[in-house]
Amino acid sequence: MKTNVYLNQLGMICSLGNNIIEIKQNLLNGKIFDLRDTLKNNLPSHDHLPLRDRSRNNQLALGALEQIFPAVEKAIQTYGPHRIGIIVGTSTSGISNGELAFNEHKINKKFPDDFHYGQQELGSPARALAKTLGISGPVYTHSSACSSSGKAMASAARLIQLGVCDAVLTGGVDSLCEFTQAGFASLESISPTRCNPFSANRNGITIGEGAALFLMTKEPSDILLSGWGESSDAYHISAPDPAGTGAIIAIQKALSRAGITPKEIDYINLHGTATLQNDAMESQVIHQLFGDKIFASSTKALTGHTLGAASAIEAGLCWLTLHPENATGALPPQIWDGIQDPRLPILRFAEIKSCLGRPLNYILSNSFAFGGSNIALILGRT
Predict the structure, then answer these.
(1) 146 an active-site residue?
(2) In the chain, pLDDT over 90 holds for what percent of residues?
(3) Which of 92-96, 261-265, 282-286 has the lowest mean pLDDT?
(4) Is 271 a catalytic residue?
């Protein structure tokens, strides 16, 4: 018998806002912020952590945790700290701290006192959350580029279904750093202006930052993780398989696990990076599986591409869209110049104020990463 896993609580921080109330309002209104600005509000202190885990990246994670802290504490009291897991995704961790430290070393010939090489470790975000909460269950971090946090959520669901955990804090976090900017620039994949997904004029990504954390349990609530599917292209280190074979497998696995057909999906949150190859592949896949009648959009023009956190942040946007408070079925809009690429199949992009006129039942959210690491998540309303 299938064990349902529910996304009971959501804490999130990104360029759309510093909490889910702000984020939902700005998302559905298609409000555009300057993605070159970092998150400006004061982030929680990390002074309670050992030096090796003090980083701005982990402060973003703590900012998301702060929003759902009472619910997480209640879960710990109910199940015990050994029955709680922490599974998160990241691709940058505390690399920005290392960049600052090495810049200071170039000038002063020594590292600053507040630097520890451990701040850059990929395992640091999960470790910092576990230390904050006193968790002794499974604690680890996924790092598979843009699919990291979606894979973390799939791993969390498996831990609950296998009976290893009763609750898991899961999601992802990534912070801006020069390392990723330089990497994507070397691939000529950075847009000099806001990214323009699926447009004939698209020319690359805009990098963002943020964190999204869910409290996942088998206790029923409004939103469940209905299905997920994972695959690997094994095609190229940075380019997707043009045929989208792996992407199709991931989506079909997610549909099968959810026990639904493509026609039951109400909205698709596209990976939509605004790179030439990724948008071409994804549009072909979506048109092949779903046709041109289902609403879809890429939200990366609003949040930026948050890399290791992208899958969880976009799942968070889907969570807000599915929530019972969205009674009219308002949809996340596609922000672009509206110039269709004649080489791509037509998709039905949601616009500002697009809505179904009823609550949504199922949403598909895609993340297709470097190395052909694919994850498709289906969120459902109970």
Answers:
(1) yes
(2) 89
(3) 92-96
(4) yes
Q: Which of 46, 116, 142, 271 is catalytic?
A: 271
pLDDT given at position 159: 98
pLDDT in tens, 214-256: 999 999 999 999 999 999 998 888 788 899 999 999 999 999 9
- Rounded CA-CA distance 314/147 in Å is 11
Q: Which of 14, 142, 146, 195 is catalytic?
A: 146
pLDDT in tens, 349-373: 999 999 999 999 999 999 999 888 9
Instruction: Please tell me which residue in 116, 177, 305, 318 is annotated as part of the active site.
Output: 305
Of the candidates 158, 153, 165, 189, the one whose C-alpha atom is nearest the C-alpha of residue 311 is: 153
CB-hemisphere CA count at 13 Å for 318?
A: 36
Q: Where are the beta strands (DSSP E) in the chain?
A: 6-13, 84-89, 139-142, 167-174, 210-217, 223-232, 267-269, 295-297, 348-349, 362-369, 373-381
CA neighbor of 250 nearest in space, from 14, 237, 241? 241
